[in-house]
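Ticket #4471: structure export looks truncated?
Reporter: QA, pipeline team
Priority: medium

Steps to reproduce: submit the single chain below to the structure queue and open the exported record.
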Amino acid sequence: MDFIKKNYEKIILSIVLLGLVGVAGFLPVLIASDQSQMQEKKEGLIHPRVEALPDLVMTNQDAVLLRLKNTTPLDFTTTNRLFNPVTWQKDKNGKLIKIVTGNEVGAGAALVTKITPLYFQISLNSVITNEAVPRYEFAMEDQAAEAPAQHRPHHYYMSVGETGGNFKLNAVKGPADSPEELDLVRGDTGETAIVSPGSPYRRVDGYTADLKYPPENFTANNLRVGAQLNFAGDQYNIIAIDENDVILLAQSNQKKYVLPYTP
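Actual output as written to the record:
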């Protein structure tokens, strides 16, 4: 106790010095810990951890796109006349005609009621055997000829090697007085026509057409290419006829109209 009493100051100083030494030794560890924490905070601020975004929910947008794809088109020209009112036109009798498609009047409203083929035909009428050489009577009919006089049958008498109506009788097969077949050749084109008793040679050379225009109760029959028609306030020329169509040419504007034929 005497030692402590005599040296207590030294003992306290020693304890304080030991404490200071301990604190001095712990400071590097504390500083390193603080620096590590500060570095972590710095990295967290500069390079923050990014979480993956959740999947987008596009249910509403997909539903809108589906509605856009399945929209019902609005028809403002044929069934709905809010923005395109129809035209009403009077015919020559005063009757009102509703113009919807544009073909209710004019050439587009004309109808082809009949198309008839025009034939070039050669038939054997008789065999003349009371001469030295048998002669054969042929009837040639050109329904498509321009001159009406040529539409009726023309008769030609020929023996083998003779010509009539641009055709030459080239050969006769079978008995001369009762032939099975007669071969004719056209001189300018080389066309061959085979004629048998009861079986004439026939080819289509053109057509005639019957037309009507209902708005004016206009009808015209047996029309040929080149015929002129007057209806719907205009003049039309027939420029072509085939088995399926009639083509009109309007004189006012040179517009062509194809009229189909539906038997």
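Status: closed, not a bug. The export was complete when the record was re-opened. Leaving a note from the reviewer for reference: The CA atoms of residues 90 and 96 lie 4 Å apart.
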